[in-house]
Task: inverse folding
């Protein structure tokens, strides 16, 4: 079994008096892609923001590489090797594509390796190389998402937090983005914690998954097992359980006769 890189234990995070995360515990092992599924308001984004230091937790512990990181400053957490690709991309619109990418490496001192990583980004996202001198504001939504992921990669992270990378993209672009994420995981060894509403593709690319509802984890397991559960198939994959489908087929046949 691979070593644990992230451990979250009994986490509680509030927005003012409102508890947004309720005793959440999860773990991510080195080399994995782990998905967090759930509807809007389930607490998925809050979880990532708490791990990356953008929000403080009131209770619980977060360990990254066996080091406590809860309630530390975001820049300190980033220096430990965590890169956060936020929902909505949050690129710098009036900077060029290349400058956006280089900002992801601004704390690094290994300039030769930075140049090599930039070449890797161009390889994975050739459209960004073609538009490297263009202001980021003029990229399409899908290209901006590629830019956000590339910028996250440029910090050379051990763990990448990805918040809704499929949001607002066409099915073809979603497939392309997730294909590249899988390559970054397999070829570059980047561990990923993925928040995603598109449960079908999240379960396809991840090894394990957690399901959140109203700020709490209500289900967890391997992706291959979760995709077979009736609750997951009905509420997250848009399918009905076999029993319901079978009853409908039987009723239809009976009516036809």
Result:
């Amino acid at each position: 079994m691979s070593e644990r890189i992230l451990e979250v234990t009994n986490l509680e995070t509030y927005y003012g008096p409102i508890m947004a995360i309720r005793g959440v515990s999860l773990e991510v092992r080195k080399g994995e892609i782990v998905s967090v599924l759930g509807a809007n308001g389930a607490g998925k984004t809050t979880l990532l923001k708490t791990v990356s230091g953008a929000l403080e937790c009131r209770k619980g512990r977060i360990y990254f590489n066996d080091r406590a990181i809860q309630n530390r400053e975001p820049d300190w957490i980033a220096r430990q090797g965590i890169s956060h690709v936020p929902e909505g991309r949050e690129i710098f619109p009036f900077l060029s594509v290349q400058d956006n990418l280089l900002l992801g490496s601004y704390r690094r001192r290994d300039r030769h390796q930075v140049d090599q990583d930039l070449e890797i980004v161009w390889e994975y996202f050739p459209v960004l190389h073609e538009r490297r001198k263009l202001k980021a504001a003029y990229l399409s939504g899908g290209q901006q998402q590629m830019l956000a992921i590339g910028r996250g990669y440029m910090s050379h992270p051990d763990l990448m937090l990805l918040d809704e990378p499929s949001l607002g993209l066409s099915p073809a672009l979603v497939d392309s983005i997730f294909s590249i994420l899988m390559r970054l995981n397999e070829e570059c060894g980047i561990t990923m914690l993925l928040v995603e509403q598109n449960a079908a593709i999240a379960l396809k690319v991840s090894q394990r998954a957690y399901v959140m509802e109203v700020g709490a984890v209500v289900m967890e397991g391997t992706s291959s097992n979760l995709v077979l559960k009736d609750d997951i198939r009905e509420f997250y994959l848009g399918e009905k359980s076999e029993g319901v489908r079978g009853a409908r087929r039987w009723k239809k046949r009976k009516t036809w006769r």
About this structure: The beta strands are 4-15, 18-29, 33-37, 59-64, 67-68, 82-85, 159-163, 191-195, 208-213, 216-222. Residues 243-257 have pLDDT under 50 and may be disordered. The domain at 4-96+155-226 is CATH 3.40.50.300 (Rossmann fold).
